[in-house]
Each structure stands twice: as C-alpha cells, then as structure tokens.
Amino acid sequence: MTVKKPLSMFLLATTTLAAGATAAIAAMEEAGVFKPVVLRDRPLADYQGATGAVDIRDASDYEDNYADDIGDGVFFAPGVTVNGLDIQEPRLSIRGFAVGNSGQRSNVIVLRDGARLTDVHGTTNASEIDLLSTREINIVRGVANLREGGGNLGGVVNLVSRTGRDAPAGLSARLDGGSTIDGKAGGQGHISFAGAASNMDYYAGVTGVYENGWRDNNRRTSQQFHGNIGFQLRDNLSTRVFVDVANSKTELAGGLTLAQLEEDAQRPTPPITLGPLFPGGPIINLVDGARADDFARDIREGRIANETKFSLLWHDFTVGGHYTRREIESPQIDFVGFIDQEGSEWGARLEAERSLRFFGGDALYRFGGEWVDGSQTSDIFDNENSDPGAAISETDQKSKLINAFVEGVYKPLRRLAVEVGAKFIKVERRLTDFADDDIDTRSFTGVAARGGARFDVSDKLQFYASASRAYEPPSMEELTAGNPTFLNDLEEQDSFTLEAGLRGKIGNWIGFNVAYYDTDVENEIISLAEPSSFISGALYGSADKTTHKGVEAGVDLHLFPGAMANRGAALTLRNVYNYASHRIVDGGFEFGDIDGNRIAGLPVHHYRGEIRYDVKDAWFVAANVQLAGGAYFADHENTVSVPTDPIVGFSAGYRLNDQIEVFASGENLFDSNYVAGVSPVLTINIDEDRIFTPGARATVYGGLKYRF
Q1: Nearest alpha carbon to residue 550 among 523, 587, 577
Q2: For residues 334-348, b (16+ Cβ closer than 10 Å) or e, as one string?
Q3: What pLDDT is stored for residue 533 in this prediction?
Q4: I want to staple 287 with a disulfide (CB 3.0 to 4.6 A). Which of 272, 438, 595, 615 is the partner?
C-alpha cells in the first residue's frame, strides 16, 4: 500500500504536467508565437515495423558542429561507442563487440545506401565515410532485423545519402576552420549541388579536409565526392545510381604507454631502445617509432552502386548492386613493414516483400539474398624510410559472401505484431602465397535467426522483445594476423540474445528509447596482444564463452516547455547512457585463469549528454559532456585501469538570413589529458605496451554555411 500510493501520485502529476505542457505549446503555436523544436531523438513513426533495437540518427545531430568522422554521427546513439585509435581512425563498437579492434575488424558492418562499405574481407575504412553528404544514419543493434543483420555480432550502420529530394536546392557551401590550444590548425570545406524535377533528381557533394593533428606525425588530407541521380520511371518503378570517390592521406601517431601518455601525450609512438648495459656503452635501437617509420595510411577508393525498386506479381522488389575499387599503402611501425593492397569487389542483392490479409490479421513476408565476391593483392615489404623495400610476403586474398533470408510479420491484433525469420550465411576465404604458390582455404557456413514481438501500448508508446541468434565468421585480417602467408585456425562466432525494450514519447516533452540485452557468445574473437609490439604472440584468440549484458538508453527532455514557449524558445536536454557488463565466462586454454573477468576496452558506465537552448530559427547555444565510470580495464586480466576524465564541449550558431549561417564548436574545453582509445591486450606490460591513444587537446572551430 505504501508503494502504490506514491506511484499513483507520481503518475497523476506526470500526466497533469504533460497535459499542461502540451496545451501551453499548442496555444503558443496557434498564436504564431512559438515554432516548437521537434524532439530529434527516436521518431516513433519510423519504428512501426521494428520488433528489435534500431536507431535513426538524423544529420541535425551533428551538422551544427565540426563533424569530420563517424564518431560525431553516433554521439546520440544508444548502445554505440567509439574507440578513437588515431586521427580519422575511429572504431565503432555496438554492445561491446569490436571494442578491441586494433585493426579494422568486422563485428560492425557499415553500409552506404544499403550497399557495403565494409568490404567482403571484413575491413572498414572510416576515412571513406563523408558525414556532410549523409542525410541520416540507421543503426541496427544486434539482430534487430535479418535484411542487413545476422551475419555479425554487433550490428549494422547504414549511411543514407542526401538526394535532390531532401537536400537544399541549388548550390550550397560550407567552410569550417579552427585550431587546438597549441596552434595546430585544421578545417574542412564542402560544396553541394542539388535539384529535382518531376521524374528525376540529383545530388553532388565534394568535401575536402586538412587537419594538422595536435600530435606529431598526425597530419591528414582527404578529398571525397559523393553523387547520386534518381529516376521515377513509372509509379511502380524507380532507380538510383550512386557514385563515391575518396582519396585520403593520413599520418598516424600511434599508441603510447600509460607513462608516456602522462609525460608527453603529444609525442608519436617513440622508439624502443636497449642500454646502455654498462656506463658509456652503446644504445641498441630495438624498434623504430612512428616518426622514423613514417607511420601512415593512404587510401584511394572508387565505388558505384545502384538501387532499383519495382512492383511485379503482387510483390515489391528492391534490386541493388555495387562495384568498388580500392588501393591502400601503409608504412607500419616496428616489424610489420610496408603494406600495399590493391583490389576490387562486386556485389548484388535482391529483396522482395508482400503485404496481405491472413486469418483476419495483417501480414507481411519478405525474402531476399546477397552475393559479394572480392579479391585483393596484399603485399608486405620492408619499410625503408616510408618506401617499400625487400618483399616479406606477397599474397592474393579472395573472399566470397552468400546469404539468403526469409522473415514474416503477422498482426493478429491491431496493436500486436509478431515477427520470425531465418538467414543462411556462407563465407569463403582463400589465400594464395606467391612465394611457393601455396593455397589455403577456409569455408564457414551457418544460420542466423530471430523471433520478436512488438506491442503498441498506445500511438506513442511501444514495447518490444525478441530472441535472436547471430553467426559471424572471422575476417581475413583476423585469419592472417601474426602470419600473412596462411590462414590460422580461428573459428566462427555464435551468439544468442534475449532483448526487451520500450520506446515512445510523453506529450511533446519526453522522447525515450530504453533497451536491455543479454547475449551469450561462443568463440568470441578478442585481442590478445598489441599489433605493433615486438613481443611475439598471437594477435587474436577465441574465448570459449563470453557474455554481454547491458542497458542502453536515450532520453530527450523538453524542459519547461510552457515557459520557454512564452519566450519563443526551447530548452532541450539530450541524454545517452550505456551500462555494459561484458565478461569472459570461460576463456579456454589459451587465455589462462581469467574466467569471470571483464572484457577489456569498455567502461561499465558511459554517459553522453547535451543541453541546448534554441530561440526560434535565429540562434542556439549548447554544451555537451562525456563521462565514463566504473571498471574500465586495458587488459583482460583486469590489472590496469584506463584513466577517465569528463570531456566537455560546446556549440553555437546564428542564422543571419535565409542564405547565411555562422556557427562555432569546441571540444575538450578544459584541456583534459584523456584516453580516446585503447587496444586491449590479454597480459599487459605496463612499461612497453603502447596501447593507449590520447585524445585531442582543447580545440575550437568556427564555420560558415552559404546557400546561393
């Protein structure tokens, strides 16, 4: 009785407040005094078909800030974290998967307009992502659907491009520039041209970036082009062609030991020396550092893709295809050498769906599949002053992916939807060592499946729950880690997830999306050693059993809506909170006695938030913060903690007229010496393992947008 009464009073007060706030906003809007700010998080109408954890990040999340990598695009995405391992080297992690990806591993797949940016070998190059030509970012956490998901543990990130239908018509330009507190300048420029006619539209955008990173040996230049043209040929027939070109040159500073980070975080990875063993004796250079080896990664990429939609025989079809050509040159530090890769891939996909009435309820079924085939030469040479020297290995890598899925949704009741589906996955890896014409092959075949239900409590509130299985083979990089001339014996990864969530809105003042997940994994591939370390040992290993449990929450609060409306303003507090309890249940023989330990590389508690004050369409000012807390280890033995500090930023903007906007943004305003990324290891050598990447110092940028 003592519990029910306060709860009833709270619900009554909440309902009264929501009704009053909504009425106040409606009155001001009708009077023309106030143009309300729509809560930008979690538009419920976009989730009507989903029985799992999905997220939609609109470009408004980041376009008012200096946004130069995918990390800026997912700042407000629950369940998603970014491991910043160097300038323009963010590694996406969803629900803790791929958090230890010291290389470009594939636990999170990145698509652009439904076609793969993550290549068929399992590598994602973040420098190929251009946020300024992206309209929205769709995120599938876990196996929230089988069209994109199921073939990897973490989830899928799909970048949806701007088109002539949604981009500002005509010519638009944007220029950003700024500097760190110690005078390291950087900036980017973007020009776009868009238009639409009755049956066609077009968009083209060019982005150029120059950043003189705040650390030494950390400069970046890149040029990116994205264009697309769409044709509405008939009422039930449309097609769109996408073209991407990227040219990126990045100097990499590399990681530091914890002591080096505290002493001088600006330095690149230093050499490792031995001696003198006696007074006046020689000093032996064991390992060159990032500056001496000119540690860098240069990428040239071209891509063309198509998506065609039509209706035939009572079904709605989507047919797509892509071709990508990519060249990578990367002088590495230490014993790795000079990596030279060149290759291409072809891909095609087909989806079909049909809606119908079935036993008195609405039903929908869909089916489809994907085929991707790619090959690349992957050669490693001695690194001789950033030029390739003698050949260490010369190989050809081939990968093929085939999958097929079927799923159905049935609504026996108006507010209840039930979904079931399965997906067949087959991956082939083939490696040819040109030194002796030796051919090594691995083939992986598995099934992903899911069942879920969604109950629409009201038009503004949804509850969902699901059970799913994911299946992910090791990537080519994981299979060749440690020795590039043969495929190692890493096994495929299987996961089983139970998930439940609640999303919706209360009036016009709260929008929320909260989910709980519990995932059991067999053979999860985790990092064992630092890739650039001179210490011998495998880079990756398979833990027999792990578990990923957590809560991911996003909440938008429209504060004091009535009072703000009287001023023609809005005050919005946006919050993202992730709780992660990820542990090694049974490490197996190669991991030693670490059963029960936390998987390294991720804090237990992680919060990101922003408070923003808008005055109509005239101007805004906002402050944001990132906080990490709880256990956060650098090693799976859980002996060394990663230092954490609050990171504070700001943004502000002013609209001069319909054509001109100016804005400013700042990062790390208190100039904290913080860790932006860590490459987890099994056993850490605190004096030698250079696995910590420092975050940038205090930085301020200014920008100008102009529409011609």
Answers
A1: 577
A2: bebbbbbbebbbebb
A3: 55
A4: 272
**Residue 392 has which token pair?**
């260490």
Q: Which of 556, 577, 635 has the alpha carbon at shortest distance from 80?
A: 577
CA distance 242 to 114: 11
Predicted local distance difference test score (pLDDT) of residue 436:
86
Question: What are the tokens at 120?
Answer: 């068929």
Q: 628-644: string of b/e by CB count within 10 Å (b at 16+)?
A: beebbbbbbbbebebbb
pLDDT at 367 over 90: yes
ω before 276 within 30° of 0 (cis)?
yes
Residue ranges of the domains in the chain? Answer: 1-33, 34-207+215-278+299-311+318-707
pLDDT of 7: 35
How far the first Cα of the chain sits from its last, in Å, is 66
What gap in Å lies between CA 708 and CA 699, rounded to an integer? Answer: 30
- Residue entry with tokens 């090959």: 375
Buried b / exposed e along 11-46 (16+ C-beta atoms within 10 A): eeeeeeebeebbebbeebeeeeebebbebbbbebee
How large is the average pLDDT for residues 564-592? 90
DSSP character string of 68-137: -SHHHHTTT-TTEEEEE-STT-EEEEETTBTTT-SS--SSEEEEETTEESS-TTS---GGG--GGGEEEE
Cα distance between residue 397 and residue 365, in whole Å: 37
Domain 34-207+215-278+299-311+318-707 architecture = Beta Barrel (2.40)
Tell me whether strands 108-112 and 155-161 are parallel, antiparallel or unpaired: parallel
Extract the tokens encoding 348.
Answer: 């095609």
pLDDT tens-digit profile of 139-189?
Answer: 999 998 898 889 999 999 999 999 999 999 999 999 999 998 888 899 999
